[in-house]
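Consider the tokenized backbone below.
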């Protein structure tokens, strides 16, 4: 089933960092919803559309729990309304470095090259098959870069058509952060219903529009539900603050895979949603850096053999949430940010196209979170300078 999420309200979403950290009160406000937040919204909507008391039926609790958790988010795709049409949006890849152009209206784009470790390299990595991301820069990275990239620009990146110091306007690359909203409120005394002196609290949120205000953003959601008759069109509520969003049925298609992956030795896996791997990489793909070689591994559920040769990971994000089964908050965990890049080598180059098709738009097989929309990825060509 496919739905489009839109809203004119300010969305207030927080991560799962513990209260009391330096400079943090009630968690850090998010700039964009996590996949599990969207999954929770969909499951809640499906349940309430069937029965207003769906989540309060003690005699059917276990049955309802099993049904509602079987609903899985298969794909998530944001898009922006540009030039009188909707165009898909993608995260900024971690292996692109942006520098400021002499003309302030432009950014220079510098793709990272993956190189073999040379004998003279100053590194403590024992495994000589691991490749080092490298970029030759003469200036500092740009202070402000897009929050999302346009699909047209992203296609050039996937096809390896970006060269060092290529200049693009900010608008041609993508869009900036959604409109930020910060409000300070007075606390109200429950007895007198008047403001209490020196008691303030703030809400920090965003609108699904770009800073310019002229670019609208929506979110296409693809999910599987056992009861095909359930129609969740209408109002829904997103996140712990239960901000109102609108869901409408959509004919949106996920971005289509290009046809240039035949007979490729190296490919790149790019995360388009957060990765929930328990570390910086899926455990099944993680190599042993103390070994002299990198072992081939099977993509789970297939006979395709690949191995990880390098990676560009752009940090982590904290997440918590509410555990419906245990009726308690979830413990915080760290997610890999969207845009992370994993360079893989294909054992049989004749299978490279089939591997690309298999991985395109799927998740990276984190079994415990396969239904929550985490680890969604697409595939691109890789620029490699291999000497080993």
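A designed sequence for it:
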């Amino acid at each position: 089933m496919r739905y489009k999420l839109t809203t004119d309200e300010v969305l207030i979403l927080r991560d799962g960092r513990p209260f009391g950290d330096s400079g943090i009160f009630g968690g850090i406000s998010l700039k964009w919803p996590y996949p599990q937040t969207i999954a929770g919204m969909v499951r809640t909507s499906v349940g309430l559309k069937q029965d207003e008391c769906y989540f309060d039926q003690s005699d059917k609790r276990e049955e309802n729990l099993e049904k509602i958790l079987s609903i899985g988010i298969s794909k998530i795709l944001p898009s922006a309304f540009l030039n009188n049409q909707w165009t898909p949006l993608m995260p900024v890849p971690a292996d692109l470095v942006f520098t400021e152009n002499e003309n302030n209206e432009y950014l220079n784009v510098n793709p990272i090259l993956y190189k073999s470790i040379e004998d003279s390299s100053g590194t403590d990595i024992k495994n000589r098959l691991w490749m080092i991301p490298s970029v030759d820069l003469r200036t500092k990275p740009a202070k402000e870069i897009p929050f999302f990239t346009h699909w047209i620009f992203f296609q050039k990146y996937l096809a390896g058509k970006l060269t060092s110091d290529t200049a693009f306007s900010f608008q041609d690359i993508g869009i900036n952060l959604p409109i930020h909203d910060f409000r300070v409120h007075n606390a109200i005394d429950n007895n007198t219903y008047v403001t209490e002196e020196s008691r303030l609290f703030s809400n920090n949120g965003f609108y699904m529009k770009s800073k310019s205000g002229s670019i609208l953003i929506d979110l296409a959601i693809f999910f599987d539900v056992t009861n095909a008759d359930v129609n969740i069109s209408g109002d829904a509520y997103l996140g712990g603050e239960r901000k109102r969003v609108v869901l409408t049925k959509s004919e949106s298609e996920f971005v289509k895979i290009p046809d240039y992956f035949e007979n490729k030795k190296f490919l790149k896996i790019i995360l388009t949603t957060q990765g929930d791997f328990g570390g910086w990489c899926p455990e099944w793909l993680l190599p042993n850096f103390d070994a002299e070689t990198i072992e081939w591994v099977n993509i789970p559920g297939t006979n395709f053999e690949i191995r990880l040769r390098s990676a560009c990971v752009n940090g982590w994000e904290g997440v918590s949430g509410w555990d419906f089964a245990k009726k308690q908050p979830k413990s915080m965990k760290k997610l890999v940010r969207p845009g992370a890049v994993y360079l893989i080598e294909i054992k049989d180059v004749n299978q490279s196209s089939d591997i690309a098709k298999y991985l395109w738009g799927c998740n990276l097989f984190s079994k415990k979170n396969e239904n929550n929309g985490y680890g969604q990825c697409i595939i691109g060509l890789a620029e490699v300078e291999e000497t080993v």
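Confidence is low (pLDDT under 50) at residues 20-24.
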